[in-house]
């Protein structure tokens, strides 16, 4: 295994004790109680992991009810209002959902290993015992054998979107609001497979329970006033400004019972008919290709139904330090913050820490040495504060780390990331990637995806 010389003593002990399962957390403490749980029985495990369109249950009926309401395909942007009148109401479906948990959407060799690394980090390092659901499409290979049992022991439910709907489009991010809506939880924290919590989310759920229908996190980019969607959803939300903060959907929270159910279904509708609505949101006069997709359909849906939501502080960035004046951090990772402006989530921007990158030795570092946070957040409300570096700098960064690079063109506070967190996050995370990606269970899973592809 690579990186063994630099591994911590706890990581070395993990490796010596098991080829597959880590047995200590990152601080060398005994494994948390959820790693001692026995695998669920076959009957229970099947019930937990198989929610397909062909199964006659409440979720099956909900999916068909929503899909029926999606038809006919809209020819005008304002036809979303017809869907809202036909869509299932919360009182009809509330018995299907309970409690709180974390949801990811990851399938196949491209994203499932990433999601597993994120989940193991939650369990081992943060000792977070919130239930986790990892969804995939029926067309994607799912975990079996050792890997399936490992997920079961970690209280990770493996869920499936099946039937014709799972084969409808190759744009996988259009399924994101669907898996949030179909998850068994009332209160959902959604994470992309390459978004990793570095702080326990318990306080976020407590705040969501108090008075919020949804919490969204800002992206680097901005929305523009001249996009055609605004005249159909209640008007431009940016007041007198030409710009309005864009949202990223690598992390978001929704409370279905608090008023988030109807806008969540409308967001699903926007993504089901993405050929119409994506252009309406993003094809402003000056908008480029950055940050397009499902992400702003969430805040647009909430605005359309006049349901209040909370938008978090502007993000920070994590990456290597550029010493040439002015000093900047080359942000290969978007760093989302909590209400106290503490680092909460690291989300890689472009080239991810994929299994294929690991085995081909494309990275030896994640390029996560420094943390840059805006000095004056209000400045980010008035203009696009992010700018791509020139191609030479992007190429240099990709050789030393992961992802394309963005930098703030506004004053920032710059600190070493280890100083911010009190430990070497990059070293700890690379050790964990090594444990998961070099394990027999992941290698068997990757082999099965190749066999299925052939």
Structure description:
With 454 residues, the chain is α+β, with helices and mostly antiparallel strands. The chain folds into two domains: 4-18 and 315-453, no CATH class; 42-311, Spore Coat Polysaccharide Biosynthesis Protein SpsA, Chain A. The chain is 36% helix and 19% strand. It is built from 17 helices and 17 strands. The protein has helices spanning 9-17, 42-49, 58-69, 80-86, 90-93, 108-124, 145-153, 176-182, 202-211, 256-272, 274-282, 297-304, 355-359, 391-400, 417-421, 425-437, 440-453, and strands at residues 100-105, 132-137, 156-161, 187-191, 195-197, 214-224, 243-255, 310-311, 316-319, 321-322, 328-329, 333-337, 343-348, 370-374, 386-388, 406-408, 412-416. Strand 12 (333-337) and strand 13 (343-348) form a beta hairpin. The model is unreliable at 1-56, 285-289 and 382-402 (pLDDT under 50).
In short:
It holds the Pfam family Mannosyl_trans3. The chain has 17 helices and 17 strands.
Topology:
Layout: H1 9-17, H2 42-49, H3 58-69, H4 80-86, H5 90-93, E1 100-105, H6 108-124, E2 132-137, H7 145-153, E3 156-161, H8 176-182, E4 187-191, E5 195-197, H9 202-211, E6 214-224, E7 243-255, H10 256-272, H11 274-282, H12 297-304, E8 310-311, E9 316-319, E10 321-322, E11 328-329, E12 333-337, E13 343-348, H13 355-359, E14 370-374, E15 386-388, H14 391-400, E16 406-408, E17 412-416, H15 417-421, H16 425-437, H17 440-453
Parallel strand pairs: 1-2, 1-4, 2-3, 6-8
Antiparallel strand pairs: 4-7, 5-13, 6-7, 9-12, 9-14, 10-11, 12-13, 14-17, 15-16
